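Dear Dr. L.,

I hope this message finds you well. Following up on our conversation about the binding site, I have prepared a predicted three-dimensional model of the protein together with LLP. For your records, I am including the exact sequence and ligand specification that went into the calculation, followed by the structure tokens. Please feel free to forward this to your student if that is useful.
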Amino acid sequence: MNAPVLAGPLPGQPFIHQHDGQLRMEKIDLAPLARRYGTPLFVYSKASMLAALEAYRRGFAGRSAQICYAVKANSSLGVLQVFAQAGCGFDIVSIGELERVMAAGGRADQTIFSGVGKTALEMSRALQAGIACFNVESQAELHLLSAVASDAGRRAAVSVRVNPDVDARTHPYISTGLKGNKFGVAHDQALQIYQLAHSLPGLDVVGIDCHIGSQITQAGPYLDAMERVLDLVDALKNSGILLQHIDFGGGLGINYNQDTPPAADELWRQLLARIDARGYGQCKLMIEPGRSLVGNAGLCLTEVVYTKPGSHKNFCIVDAAMNDLPRPAMYEAFHQIVPVTPRHGPMLTYDVVGPVCESGDWLGRDRSLCVQSGDLLAVLSAGAYCMSMASNYNSRGRPAEILVDGAQAHLIRERETTADQMRGERLL
Ligand code: LLP
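The resulting structure of the complex is given below.
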């Protein structure tokens, strides 16, 4: 159920609040923004992103640590620029993401390259750009990277991504640390793979990497994974391979709907206690958070096109769809949906759906709303894995994006036109 909040900050969203019967982000009223730039419209709060970053920094105070924002969560240039200016590093999974980081003012030498399928072309471009480290996921990748680096007369810094076989207790599609997942190398083969990496001419072994999944809402799986990683660090040390850093990936969840993930500083207080207890308190730490830095900083404004009462269901048909907000269709994910200008009147239960020709095109099910055509709704927690996963399905242009900074609203991406979509296509 989704009753409108009539005053003050929305739960779990300190930068979004109701003010004089209007939804606001920081000091910007959202209704006029939607009227000016049209809908669907993504709107992000800079202060919210920086506050999320600050929580990690508090957790690492006094330690040698590098926060590498996972670009895949939201790769819009304006968002990357906020993190680059805040001195963040980046975690990329493609050359496209590296080019974006550099275009936004980010530094390649503070960027790490993750992913199971890096091509030789991507490796060579990343080496040329001066990437900080490759997180390698297989023996075959080690061989290729060594060859590419040697051909270029360079050495590539590598971490091996280890699969700790820990259940992250999240949606199966976003769980990555179990034996059956395609990610990383098996824990019991890691030592042998490190020895191979150590012997290859084009590689410098610098770290160990692990990422067990996304939208993790409990500390337990992280603590288990850390113990497993530290077991390997011990074993590597005993075989003469000394590491400079431990990269612990991303994955910390956010509050979508009464989720209660640990705060970043609290989680790291617990993890650092384990690291200290095992004698690795001096080791540099790297992390790759995505969702927890941007997820609750963003929302998507959408206009109600029609309401359609039905015998089984009432539908609230809006102008945003699964191509803009793919998470409900892909993972049955829950996003809160709130009115921008709440009305007083009887509430009805609606499925909030988009115009795309699929029954899977829903944004929220069984939501209690009082709405009419022309009303604006805000789909919350839409800063991560929405715009970066948006598509042109049904030949729909991708939305515009606004970055709010106090009383200023910056257009960081224009709405995509049909001409933009057809650019590069050719008739026979
Ligand atoms: N590092 C690696 C190697 C990753 O694969 C990921 C996410 C991250 C870091 C960042 O994880 P985060 O802190 O954002 O949880 N599209 C899905 C999420 C896919 C996550 C993929 N990997 C969703 O919308 O829930």
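In brief: The mean pLDDT is 95.

With kind regards,
A. P.
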